[in-house]
Amino acid sequence: MSASTADAFDTRAFRCTLGAFATGVAIVAAEGEDGTLVGMTMSSFNAVSLDPPLVLFSVARNALSLPALKAARAYGISVLARNQQELSGRFARAQGEKWAGVALLRGAGGAPLIAEAAAHLECVPHAIHDGGDHEIFIARVLAHRCEPAADPLVFHAGRYRSLSAIAS
Questions:
Q1: Which residue has the higher pLDDT, 80 or 157?
Q2: Each residue of 52-63: pLDDT tens digit?
Q3: Which of 27, 121, 138, 143 could be a cystine partner for 126, CB 3.0 to 4.6 Å?
Q4: Is residue 101 left, alpha or beta, with left meaning phi > 0 and alpha meaning psi from -120 to 50?
């Protein structure tokens, strides 16, 4: 079941294994020093601490927006609703007109937030750590809000999924 050497480690199979863990989908966004907005789709988003309120997300070292995210004064994290699948795909691409026609809100420190998302977190940088081929960002949450009735966008096994309510 496990690889005994690095040579035997199958990265493709590892990705498949990780894909068995269903995740929500979020867009992490910031404003660069030059005023340019950057944003990227994340499934590597997680709670870290309640006191102080901390969350984390990870960014590939080769991501074009990494320098802007590292220099950002604030982050806006928008947890996407089921009807925002198109935005997830758009912000997952490395380039393009990600922000064209996107209704924005501004959070703490001017952080961009996607309107009508299931939840928003307004954050400031707390720490950045080495994470192999990624950098792990830990952000302190200054403000947050959610729409409890929103159906979240879920990603599992390489596809978008939806949750169904269990009748009690």
A1: 80
A2: 999 999 999 999
A3: 138
A4: left
Over residues 124-153, mean pLDDT: 94
CATH at residue 49: 2.30.110.10
Residue 158 is predicted with a pLDDT of: 85
Tell me if 39 sits within 8 A of 29, measured CB to CB.
yes
DSSP string, 32-43: -TTS-EEEEEES
Q: pLDDT tens, 65-75? A: 999 999 999 99
Q: CA-CA distances (angstroms) from residue 33 to 20, 70, 137, 162?
A: 38, 11, 18, 37
Q: Give which of 63, 92, 65 is closest to 153, Cα–Cα.
A: 92
DSSP 100: T
Cα-based distances in Å from 128 to 55, 69, 167: 12, 10, 42
Hunting for tokens 């809000």 — which residue is that? 145
Residue ranges making up the domain that contains 91: 18-145
In this structure, is residue 162 part of a structural domain?
no
- 3-state DSSP call for residue 11? helix
9 assigned to some structural domain: no
